[in-house]
Specification:
alpha+beta, 20 strands, globular, 3 domains, 23 helices
């Protein structure tokens, strides 16, 4: 733990000495025979990895990294990640199946976690974070010593061969538990500083100072790099300056307009958190210059890669290629080995301490500006019994922690004062027509919002006349939903739906509302969808009074596996969630382009949600900002920002928010009907058989006609 009584110089000297001692001891491990053969093999391989990470540290520290050739950088990058690449993973201790088979359970499971945690030394080496290196080296030594002592004790007691003893699983679990507990506050400080402090400029210096025509810069991050990142960087370098400006301007202007549309004051903000995939540095550089002109400096942090930050198939921060999504999926619930109420409380204390330390920086933080990528090969995970899994009690604890952490963040960065923006571009993995698809996505991201604003107002006028909206599928789609709308007390001045143009969610193209839960009922079904990087087949959710009352899919042979998959990754361990949003996507241009290229299954939710009606489970779109008065371009105030659950914030905030919001879209070709039922009993049809039929929306069908 950080010693607050030491000066920075003394602390650095202490860490340097700890590093030296740990390194010298770890260097001896591969030559020792102090444990059972398989156990010794495991620790030998872990020691080898630590020595590799140390080599990375020294290469960066000496400046040799910048002098390496492209071929040398590629070889070293692959060496750093070789152990978890798909072709090697089945024989890696990071694979819980392999670790359990070789080391037994539950020790194998714990040692697989340790193997995964040691991989956090790669970013530490490249960022020259000696503390993050040291704590993992000392963790390895502590666990190793427990095995050595157990073997020695067994030998002294004559219990078979000298190397046959093993520590009790609880001994190792306790080591992991106190490691996580001791350093969670330090980790919270690091993460919070990365979010709020532009002076943490590791990534921004790469973006702003590198020769972006030389792909070697991609290897300076310490992230895994493939031909996809190199090809992305090359493609952006080939684009004319005006197109780069157009991309960056759309992104940064969307951020600015998000504050304007949300009636929030951007002038009091000083920092924007930029999140992006490697290869987009040329656009990000221009975006940094754009943000500077409106008084915002960038913070950039690395996507989570350790026990403290958590792992996810979906990356959040700056990130390179994912060396193995199954690895991330296998270790996404490693906290199951240590999560209990005291630990959860310790994490929250650490988070509060971090925000207190950076209170001033939090006050001027504007929110994230995100560049997503899409087009990677679809990932259908394999569930492993040997992987750590949260118990029912831990799931509830995890869900409670997420709610409390969100509320805590909102204390220091109030939702009514912050905003965000998200834009997406394809990865070269999308196929042979990558460059063509990329250009089309740039076109889609920059569609004329004024045209859509007028058409969407026609939709809103019809929807505002309704009491309920009916959504039905067709063909194999079994959707049959009734959505109840809020009552408008003064229709001349109030509206239920936001007219969403290209601001926080780029591209343009949706109208959305927060439905009334009571009276919102039915079945939502999609034949195939990708949510948060995971594939779902025949996903269905049943709603009763706006709450999820049943669910299933067809990913796995057993109903139990399918339900667990949804509870873990859609409900995020909650027993149920409310319907937080109903929307109608209007971007038929994006829908037709996706069909033309055959990439419907690869669209990110950011674009997919604009290609049909969508329903979101979890928090509303106005989470933590419900009291901010928001108006549509026609001057009407949007009054549908709450539901019966979010209103609980006035009495018990822990029951009002869930810190999740997952959009599920029904594509136009699976859509039989969207209609509005008015007070008088009239039905106003908006869509029939996948086509817009409401008067004034004919332009939206033009894309279908052109494609036909």
């Amino acid at each position: 733990m950080e010693d607050i009584y030491l000066s920075e110089a003394d602390r650095n000297d202490l860490e340097t000495e700890r590093y030296r001692l740990a390194y010298e001891r770890i260097r001896e491990i591969p030559g020792e025979l102090l444990c059972a053969e398989e156990v010794q093999t495991y620790f030998g391989r872990m020691a080898d990895f630590v020595l590799l990470a140390d080599r990375a540290w020294r290469i960066v520290e000496s400046g040799d990294l910048r002098r390496m050739t492209l071929a040398q950088l590629q070889d070293f990058n692959r060496e750093l990640y070789a152990d978890i690449l798909p072709e090697h993973y089945a024989e890696s201790y990071a694979d819980p199946d392999y670790a359990a088979a070789r080391l037994g359970r539950p020790l194998g499971q714990m040692l697989s976690l340790l193997c995964a945690e040691l991989r956090g030394m790669i970013p530490a080496a490249f960022e020259q974070n000696r503390s993050d290196m040291v704590i993992r080296m000392e963790l390895l030594l502590e666990v190793y010593q427990a095995f050595v002592c157990a073997a020695q004790e067994a030998a002294e007691q004559g219990a078979g061969e000298a190397d046959s003893g093993q520590p009790a699983p609880e001994t190792i679990r306790q080591i992991l538990y106190w490691y996580a507990g001791d350093y969670c506050e330090t980790a919270a400080l690091e993460r919070t500083a990365g979010l709020l402090c532009p002076e943490r400029d590791f990534a921004s210096r790469i973006v702003m100072e590198s020769d972006l025509s030389d792909p070697r810069y991609l290897y300076y991050y310490g992230e895994y790099v493939t031909d996809s990142e190199i090809r992305t960087a090359a493609h952006l370098c080939s684009l004319p300056e005006e197109k780069i400006r157009l991309m960056a301007d759309t992104y940064t202007e969307g951020y600015r307009i998000g504050f304007e549309a949300g009636n929030k004051d951007i002038s009091i903000k000083k920092t924007v958190n930029i999140r992006y995939a490697l290869g987009f540095e040329r656009m990000i550089r221009q975006a940094v210059l754009n943000f500077d002109r409106i008084g915002l400096r960038p913070s950039m942090y690395r996507a989570g890669s350790n026990l403290f930050q958590g792992r996810s198939v979906e990356k959040n921060g700056f990130f390179g290629a994912n060396p193995n999504r199954q690895f991330d999926y296998d270790h996404r619930e490693d906290l199951a080995l240590i999560l209990d109420k005291p630990f959860a409380e310790r994490r929250l204390e650490g988070m509060r301490s971090a925000y207190e330390r950076y209170r001033a920086e939090a006050a001027v933080f504007g929110g994230p500006a995100v560049v997503e990528i899409f087009g990677e090969k679809p990932f259908a995970p394999r569930t492993k019994e040997t992987a750590c899994r949260l118990s029912g009690k831990q799931q509830k604890l995890s869900a409670e922690y997420a709610v409390k952490a969100g509320a805590l963040q909102n204390e220091y960065i109030p939702g009514e004062e912050r905003s965000f923006t998200i834009i997406a571009f394809p990865s070269p993995e999308i196929g042979e027509r990558y460059e063509e698809i990329f250009d089309d996505i740039v076109r889609i991201n920059t569609l004329d919002y004024r045209l859509y604003r007028g058409i969407q107002q026609k939709l809103i006028d019809a929807l505002d006349a309704g009491v309920t909206v009916t959504v039905k599928g067709c063909g194999g789609n079994r959707t049959d939903m009734t959505v109840r709308l809020h009552e408008l007390r003064d229709p001349a001045k109030e509206t239920n739906f936001e007219n969403c143009v290209a601001d926080v969610n780029i591209p343009v193209g949706e109208v959305f509302t927060s439905p009334v839960l009571a009276g919102t009922n039915g079945m939502l079904h999609v034949t195939r969808v990708f949510l948060n990087g995971l594939e779902y087949r025949d996903l269905w959710l049943r709603f009763e009074d706006g709450m999820v009352a049943g669910y299933g899919c067809a990913n796995f042979p057993s109903e139990e596996e399918n339900r667990k998959y949804i509870k873990d990754n859609v409900l995020f361990h909650h027993d149920t969630l409310p319907l937080g949003e109903f929307a109608i996507g209007t971007n038929t241009t994006a829908y037709v382009a996706a069909r033309r290229y055959g990439i419907e299954d690869k669209l990110p939710i950011l674009i997919a949600e604009k290609t049909g009606p969508h329903f979101a489970v979890g928090d509303t779109c106005y989470s933590h900002a419900e009291n901010v008065r928001v108006y549509n371009p026609d001057g009407k105030e949007i009054i549908a920002k709450d539901n019966e659950v979010s209103l609980l914030r006035d009495t018990d905030v822990s029951k009002a928010y869930f810190q999740c919001h997952t959009d599920i879209t029904i594509p136009y070709d699976e859509l039989g009907e969207i209609s509005v039922s008015t007070v008088s009993g009239e039905r106003i049809f908006i869509i029939r058989d996948g086509q817009f039929v409401l008067e004034g929306c004919e332009e939206l069908n033009r894309a279908f006609q052109v494609s036909g």
